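Field reference: "sequence" (input) and "structure" (output). Example, UDP-galactopyranose mutase:
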Amino acid sequence: MSHSIDYLVVGAGFAGSIVAERLASAGRQVLIIDKRPHVAGNAYDEYDAHGVLIHRYGPHIFHTNAPRIVEYLSQFTQWRPYEHRVLAEVNDQLLPMPINRDTVNRLYRLDLDEAGVQAFFEKVREPRDPVRTSEDVVLNSVGRDLYEKFFMNYTRKQWGLDPSELAAGVAARIPVRTNQDDRYFTDSHQVMPLHGYTRMFERMLDHPNIRVEVGVDFDAIRDQVQAGHIVYTGPIDAYFNYCFGKLPYRSLRFEHEHLADTPQYQAVGTVNYPNRHAYTRITEFKHLTGQAHPGTSIVREYPEAEGDPYYPIPRPENEALFKRYQELAEQEANVSFVGRLAQYRYYNMDQVAAAALKAAENILSRMKAVA
């Protein structure tokens, strides 16, 4: 480990790797570290013992409406088209999620057209004004029965909180449709890296100006390394030694399983289990990757209170605590805080990529101004 470097990037996920690549391509020397034994962060994928490409930390489906993000990442990967579809197990049926016309018709044994579904929602909805919580969002949109069947228990499992205790933005991420569109996302670009995320990250970081060191914890080396500028993508509260207390996160435990001589386990990439089981969903990776294999590999996701930080919990008191850390961060002239953990935001991958590209631009602009 060098004792004096120009740029230290902490974390080799989307945020850190993109900033490192942009700085290196601008002629800067960069050291990027990650405490895990690999690059790619939570998007890390690998072939399991049976030869199936899996996402070690749960499914990552790339979707965006930003052509520039696709254009940037296309330097490091080819793509395969993939439109993610999700079913939810409700009343012993597997029904489309997000809720759409087919969901309503099959659940209630109706035969409504789009106008009929819209009228149905208008009839059953419970108007809320103002809309403050996730419960408000769903009740205001589709009423109590659909809320209880699809959202209430799933949210309690996922977040460890009732929807009435969560900010409106959580439920607002999931649309409700009157047509038969069963795609989980409707973004203009829905693709997967052809050879996997890890390969994409390896190509991104394969630059003569970048040195990658994995299995290195920032806390263990922060007093040994002098860096002209640090790009920090870890938890912002950890950077400041939790001086105001810990920011709450929701974690996940992953139970991977291979099913030999089973070409396909389920009809779509992900099946949600809102009401039964301790796990929230099962994902079958071959749907995502398009891989041909005589067996298949799946993962069950178990939300937990303790463990690696995955999801910032959006509640007013947590946002207020984050603001206190953010004020400290703004006083760190030679540190940039980028990404989901450093900015305490529930970002999609494309949003992290956009934040990283912007951060790199800002860093390079400041360096030019100083020069």
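Residues 4-44+66-74+195-248+312-370 form a domain with the Rossmann fold fold (CATH 3.40.50.720).
The chain is about 35% helix and 20% strand.
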